[in-house]
């Protein structure tokens, strides 16, 4: 599992953009701003060692837990 480029859709405005995914650092949880609407995109990266896959979860980051 190495570096790859993925195309994602912004959960706020729907614009497609390319992001670089680094699978060499293990599981990650970070925010990146949309290049169009500047809203934060929450990205969670999970390394599935058993299946040799990288799972990428994307959400708007503004969900609240009550």
TrEMBL record:
Top-level taxonomy: Bacteria, Pseudomonadati, Pseudomonadota, Gammaproteobacteria, Alteromonadales
Top-level taxonomic group: Bacteria
Protein name (record): CPXCG motif-containing cysteine-rich protein
A Pfam family it matches: Zn_ribbon_21
InterPro entries: UCP037225 (IPR017143), zinc_ribbon_bacterial (IPR025990)
């Amino acid at each position: 599992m190495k570096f790859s480029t993925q195309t994602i859709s912004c959960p706020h405005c729907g614009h497609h953009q390319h992001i670089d995914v680094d699978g060499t650092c293990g599981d990650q949880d970070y925010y990146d701003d949309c290049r169009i609407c500047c809203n934060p995109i929450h990205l969670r990266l999970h390394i599935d060692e058993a299946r040799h896959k990288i799972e990428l979860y994307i959400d708007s980051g503004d969900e609240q837990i009550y």
